[in-house]
């Protein structure tokens, strides 16, 4: 399932879990899973209520007061000794690691020297483990999100009164390139908590508007405060991909650079570097530039989270002094790569809409080993596919 997060009112761990339950996560199964954590007695309070006139669920964990500061290793031990599934345990540990890295940075200590105060409390442990459980059991694959509202002013914590966003949150925002929503007068107070931002960083969403899918259903998690002028409400939307004649639309980023002073021999290694770094495609087109000079237009296609790293790659691997970024959408056919063991060697075939496309490197390798030309190699392999795998409808044009 793909999800979209409306972060216009910020994010907290309890709000995220409440939104997941409202979306359809099994509350009873979640409580049973969390009860296997070796923690002091606690109770989950889930209430249907409103904030700013809008409905949603508010979550609270009740537990006896404690003054126990925990290290990352002790948190990992609590998780590992539970009966949470290995996948849920890994997610929870990754979220805690993100928090530990942020705290270690702001305090100038090693990650194992970090003393968790608020984040080491029972409710924070339950929030993070519950979030990890919900992500697995809702089978969340891709995540999209709006820019994040963090709030303003000051907030009290174990280290005293601090400016919003608190240092650990500010570090995670910077490290994970989380875009912020402009602060408004109604955003007074802390809207994005360390636990909530760590969950968001773990999700690593595509940020911005989401025009690519339709919303199927939604869940809303409510914060504890009733805020003036807005609903203190995190909304989580389950999405369905738009499809037209078997097509799927997805968001992509286009990186563009114009160059007139680069050695053409550098273009081959550039293609290899871009694809190895996760770029979807790269094209280089001749163009006329200023003063009548012949140049080249480089156009690189990538998934949005990879855009910054690939822009840096272009700056490092070419002579350009700048890279332009554009957001776009593309229609693609669902495809599947199948590995075959043919009589002549291993062959990868990309199937899309019932049509096979032979992997060129494998086709070339088989042609060279058999001393065939490429047309003969393709004909032989297509015949073999038709005979041994007739369940795929081969195109008559191939």
TrEMBL record:
Gene Ontology terms, MF aspect: lyase activity; nickel cation binding
UniProt similarity note: Belongs to the LarC family.
Key word Lyase present: yes
Organism (species): Magnetococcus marinus (strain ATCC BAA-1437 / JCM 17883 / MC-1)
Annotated PANTHER family: NICKEL INSERTION PROTEIN-RELATED, PYRIDINIUM-3,5-BISTHIOCARBOXYLIC ACID MONONUCLEOTIDE NICKEL INSERTION PROTEIN
Keywords for the protein's UniProt record, in alphabetical order: Lyase, Nickel
Domain of life from the UniProt record: Bacteria
Full protein name: Putative nickel insertion protein
The keyword Lyase belongs to this UniProt entry's keyword annotation: yes
């Amino acid at each position: 399932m793909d999800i979209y997060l409306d972060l216009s009112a910020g994010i907290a761990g309890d709000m995220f879990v409440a939104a997941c339950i409202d979306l359809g996560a099994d509350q009873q199964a979640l409580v049973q899973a969390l009860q296997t954590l070796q923690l002091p007695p606690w109770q989950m309070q889930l209430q249907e209520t409103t904030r700013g006139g809008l409905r949603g669920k508010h979550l609270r964990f009740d537990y006896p007061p404690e003054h126990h500061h925990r290290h990352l290793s002790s948190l990992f031990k609590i998780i590992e000794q539970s009966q949470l599934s290995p996948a849920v345990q890994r997610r929870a540990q990754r979220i805690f690691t993100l928090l530990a890295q942020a705290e270690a940075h702001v305090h100038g200590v090693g990650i194992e020297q970090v003393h968790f105060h608020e984040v080491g409390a029972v409710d924070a442990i339950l929030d993070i483990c519950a979030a990890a459980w919900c992500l697995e059991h809702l089978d969340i694959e891709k995540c999209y999100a709006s820019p994040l509202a963090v709030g303003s002013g000051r907030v009290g914590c174990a280290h005293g009164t601090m400016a919003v966003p608190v240092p650990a949150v500010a570090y995670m925002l910077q490290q994970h390139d989380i875009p912020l929503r402009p602060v408004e007068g109604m955003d007074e107070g802390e809207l994005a908590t360390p636990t909530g931002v760590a969950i968001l960083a773990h999700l690593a969403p595509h940020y911005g508007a989401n025009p690519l899918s339709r919303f199927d259903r939604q869940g809303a998690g409510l914060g504890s405060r009733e805020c003036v002028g807005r609903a203190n409400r995190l909304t989580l939307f389950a999405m369905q991909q738009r499809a037209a004649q078997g097509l799927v639309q997805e968001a992509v980023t286009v990186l563009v650079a114009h160059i007139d002073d680069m050695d053409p021999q550098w273009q081959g290694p550039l293609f290899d570097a871009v694809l190895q770094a996760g770029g979807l495609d790269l094209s280089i087109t001749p163009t006329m530039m200023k003063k009548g000079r012949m140049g080249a237009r480089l156009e690189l296609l990538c998934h949005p989270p990879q855009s910054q790293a690939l822009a840096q790659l272009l700056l490092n691997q070419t002579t350009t002094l700048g890279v332009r970024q554009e957001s776009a959408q593309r229609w693609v056919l669902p495809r599947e790569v199948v590995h075959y063991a043919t009589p002549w060697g291993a062959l990868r075939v990309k199937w899309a809409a019932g049509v096979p496309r032979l992997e060129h490197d494998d086709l070339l390798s088989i042609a060279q080993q058999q001393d065939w030309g490429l047309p003969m190699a393709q004909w032989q392999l297509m015949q073999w596919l038709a005979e041994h795998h007739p369940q795929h409808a081969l195109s008559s044009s191939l």
